[in-house]
Amino acid sequence: MFRVQCVNSFIRRLLHGGAGHRDQVLEQLRVCSAEDQVFDVVGKNKAKLTVNHVSKAVGMLWQFQKEKPQMLRTVELIKRHPQFLTLRVLAENKIALMDDLMLVDMLYSFLRLNMDQHDSLVQQLVSEAWLRIDRFPLASLSKFSICLSDQHLQHSPLMGHITSIVDQRLSSIDDARILTTLMISVSSLVSPRLRDALISRADHLLETMDPSNYNNPRRVVQFLRNIKHSYQPLLEKCNRIILRNIPRLDAENISIIMGLYQSLQFNNCDFRLAVKQRLTELIDSSIDPFSFTKLFVALAPMASQELENTALLLADELSAHQALAVAEALEETQSRNLSLFNKIASVIQRNLHVYKPVEVARITQALFLMQYQNPELFTKLRNILVKFLERSFYPYEVTMLTRVLSMLPGPRLDEGAISRMHAVVTQCNLNDLNTISYAVAKWVRNDPSYRHNTPSKYVRLLQSLNRCGHERLRTADRLDLVLEELKYISGEWFEEMLLEETMVTLKRMMDQIQWTNVPELALFLTRINHLCPPLMDRIASVAIKDIDKIHHSATYAILLPFSVLNYDSEQADELYDVCIKRFTPHISSFDPHLLVLLAYLLSVADCFSEELVREIFSIDFLGKLDAQLETLPDALNMRTRLRLMELNRAVCLECPEFQVTARSVLYFECTLDKHLKPLPYSEPSTLHISDRGQVHWGKSSVENIRDELPPGAQRVAVDFLDSKSFCKNSPRMKGEALMRKRHLEILGYRVVQIPHFEWNSMELSTPDAWKEYLKKNIFRELT
C-alpha cells in the first residue's frame, strides 16, 4: 500500500511539474490566426516575453502579411500598433541572447515589415550579424544577403565579405534556392572568374532541383541580367524549366520574367506563345487594379485591343505607379485610344508629387512618344524635370533627365542645369556622354539665338564631353567593358568625335578578342557600318578556332558584318562554312524569326544552305513563324516579313529548283532596241522561272508568258545607290546592293548602278548634266 501511494505521489509531481514547465505564452502565440491576436498576447504578457517569444511574434506578423495579396497588406497599420513598439524595444534589448538563425530571421522580418534601415534596431542587428558572419550556416548567409540588398548595401564592404565567403564555400552549396539568392545579392561584386564558377554551379544544381520550383531559374536569369551576361546555354535551361511552370504562373511573375528576358535580349518563341495563352486565360480573373496592371503590361504588346476597354473602366482606380506602367505599355503598343490617354494622364497629373526623378522622365517620354496633346501638362512636367536636374548628382539620373528634356520645346536651360551636367560628365560612361552631347547639340541647333553666337557655357560643356570621351577610351583596359558601353551608342557626335579613337582602342585590345565577345564586337561593327579588316580578320580567326564553344544562335551575329559590309577574304569564306556546319544540327531549335534573318543574311553573301532553305519554306515552319510574328513588336514583325519576302526572291532567282514566283526588284527600268533606242514603256512584269531555270515574263500569271525581246534588244536596270548602300569609311558597296545587282543580272538585265556621291557631286548640278551622265553610263555599260 505504501508503495502504491509513493508511485501515485511521484506521478502527480511529474504531471504537475510538466504543466508548470510548459511555455504557455508560446502556445498562445502558436494558435493565433491574425495580427490582432498576436498583439493581444504580447500586450497581456509583456513582463514574461523572452527572446523566443519576441522572435515568434515578429515572424508571425510578417507571415500573416506575406500570405495576403499585395493590395490587401496592412504593414503601416501594424507598425503604428502600440504593441509593435513593445516588440521592437524588446528585440533591441535581447540581441545578445539571439542565436544566429534567430538574429537573421528577426532582421529579415523587421525589414519586410518596412522598418527603416536607419532605425537603431536594424543597425544593431546588422552589426551583430557582421561579427558572427563567418560562422553563419549557408541558409542564414543567404537570408542575410537579402537583408543587405533591401538596405541598398550591394556595394558595401559587408557584401564584399559575403562574396568572399561564397567564393570559398561555393562547392559546398547544394541548395539551388540558397545559391541563386546569393548570386543575385553578390552580382555587383563578382569577378569574371567567380561569375563563371557561379554559372557552372547553378547549371549543375538546376539539373538536380525540383523542376516545379520556378523561382530558382528566375533568380538565375535575374543574376545574368544584373551582370549583363547573356549566357545562352544557361538561359535556355532556365527557360525550359520556366516553360514547364507557365500554367502555374500569375501575371506578376510572368511580367517579371518577360522584363528580365527583354533586358537580356532573349527571345524564345515557345515562351511567348505559352505566355500569351496563359495571360489570356487570366483576363477574366484580373479584375482588380493590381493584377490587371500586371496583366496589361505583359499582354498588351501581344494583344492590346481587347484589354483597352477594361483599362478604361479601371483607370480612375489606378495608383500612381500603375498609371505609369499602363502609360508605358500604351506607348510600346503605339495605341491611339485618346479616351484612355486622357484617363491615364489625369491619374498621373494628380500624382506628380509622388514620382521620383527617373519616373517623371519615363512619364514624359511615354506621353511625348504617344504624341499626347496637352501643352499645360508638358509645361508642368518640364518644370519638374528641370528642378530634379538641378538637384541630381547621379550620372544615370542626370543623363536621363537631360535626354528627356531635350525632347520638349521650351526656354533654354539656366546655368544651374548646365552646371549639373558639367559636374557629372567625368563620372559618365561613353553611352551617357553620347546622350548628353546629343541633347546639348540639339538645343544649340534649335535655338535661333545660338546660330551666330553659341554661349560659352555650352562650348565648355561640349569640350568637356569630348575630352572625357577620349580620356575614357585611352585609359580603357578591358574590351568587355568597352563593348558594354558601346552597345547602344550611335549618332553624329560619336561618329565625328569618338569613332576614330574607338577604332584605335579596339585595335589596341585585339588580343582580348575571344569567343565570348566576338558576337558583341561583330554587332558593333555592323551597327556603325564601319569596315575594319584587321578586326574582321581577328573575329574570323577566333570564331573558326573556337566555333564549337560558340552557341549556335550566335553565328548570326558573327556573320553580320561579313555579309552586310561585303567583306570577302579567304578567312571569311572559311567562316561561312564553319558557321553553317555549327548551326545546321540545331536548325529546329532556332526561333523562327531568327532563322529567317540568318537565311537572308547568308543569301546576301550568295551562300545558300539547302537544309536551311527547305526548313524555312516548309508548311510547318511557316505556320510556326506566323504564330510567333503575332507576339513580336511591330518593327521586328515587319522586318522579319520583309526579309522573308527578300529571301523568297533570292531563292527563286539563285536556286531555281525550288520553283517559286517572285516580283521585279527595280527603282527604275528601260528597254532598248538593237540601235540603243528606247522601246515603248509597259507595266512591270511578273517573272516565272521554269523547270530548266529559264526566266519568263508575263503581266500577272504564268499562263500569260510573253515572247522574248525583239532581236538585239536589251533590258537595262538603273539602280540608284544612296549612302546606305556603302560602308561609312570607304566607297565599298555593301552586300545588299551587290545582291540586287546579281539578281537583276540573273533576270536578264544589264545593270547600271549610280553611286550617290557621283550623282550629288558638284559636277552634276544641272538637269542637263544628269541626263548626260545617265546617257554616258547606260551606253557605256551596253557597249
Automatic annotation (TrEMBL):
GO terms for cellular component: mitochondrial matrix; ribonucleoprotein granule. Transmembrane segments: none annotated. Pfam families: FAST_1, RAP. One of its GO terms (molecular function) is RNA binding. Keywords: Mitochondrion. Its main location: mitochondrion. Residues 716-776 form the RAP domain. It is found in: Mitochondrion. One of its GO terms (biological process) is regulation of mitochondrial mRNA stability. PANTHER family: FAST KINASE DOMAIN-CONTAINING PROTEIN 1, MITOCHONDRIAL, FAST LEU-RICH DOMAIN-CONTAINING. This is FAST kinase domains 1. It comes from Cyclopterus lumpus (Lumpsucker). The lineage of its organism: Eukaryota, Metazoa, Chordata, Craniata, Vertebrata.
